[in-house]
């Protein structure tokens, strides 16, 4: 039980460190979150703004991270796993997560977001996107019962 509490504490510290460093709990840099909009030439402001909250983009990584943690559970100690989680992407965590993310899931997320932008355009709206200025939705933090923001994004 004590080891589980230590691991959870290290995971939560990792989330906090990642958000303070990069603005999101996974510690992935802003370029990834905005990649889906490449080539759409969406303006940065307008009457209709697409807000993804990084949720569509994050799905492949959540699945990949869960799978990665499950596959390492048997041969890495909780201390090492906790240390990796705490340090997040600062030590190849991002690369490990990105490597394991399924390309078809990434492609589906991109197609969905592009489809939303194109559908809005088709019915006469001129969608805009905030790109790297779009804030993270906070859904993961909410799910972990962090109802009051305890972090400030960079």
Automatic annotation (TrEMBL):
This is Uncharacterized protein. It comes from marine sediment metagenome.
